[in-house]
Amino acid sequence: MHLALACDAMAVRTALQNLRDGLNELHLSQDDTDRIEIVMAEILNNIVEHACSDRPDCNIGIEILRKSSDLQVTVTDNGCAMPGGTLPAGILTDIQGSRDSLPEGGFGWFLIRDLTTNVSYSRRDQKNHLSFEFELGRDTVTN
Question: 76-101 burial by CB neighbour count: b if 16+ within 10 A, else e?
């Protein structure tokens, strides 16, 4: 499956629906489909909000390849590079304390890393390349 989209919120919304439609054709479990959609929404929204926030000519490409018991995904964009050229650690934000002190964000990379495997990032030819895999049929309960 290949998807190409402009880097804006409405294009992401449309792409997520197209992705869900494409995943339905693969006859995946509801758990797998939901997990993939959560991760892809987080990644695409991060690209829109951070990598391409001040670049109107930014584009996103998605390539998904099914290999027996997993899906291999590569997402590319021509936005700004990741800070420091590396992925965020994905450490779960501390949620102890009062409701007013809870962070608004900080959960995305934890979810991405928890729900996928083999996450890697590189910057080549003025593009960000994010690759990862979904193990199909995986138990998604985290410890």
Answer: bbbbbebeeeebbeeeeeeeeeeeee
Q: Which residue has the tokens 């410890």?
A: 143
The answer to the question of residue 20 being in a domain is yes
Tell me the C-alpha distance between 46 and 20, whole Å. 19
Residue 121 lies in a domain: yes
Sign of CA dihedral 118, 108, 86, 72: positive
Domain region containing 82: 2-135
Residue 143, pLDDT score: 43
Q: What is the CA radius of gyration of the chain?
A: 15
Q: Is the pLDDT of residue 52 over 70?
A: yes
> How many domains, in total, are found in the chain?
1
Distance separating alpha carbons of residues 48 and 19, to the nearest angstrom: 17
Tokens (6 digits) for 87? 């992925």
| Residues contacting residue 19 through CB under 8 Å, at least 6 positions apart | 1, 3, 36, 37, 40, 62, 64
Q: Is residue 143 part of a domain?
A: no
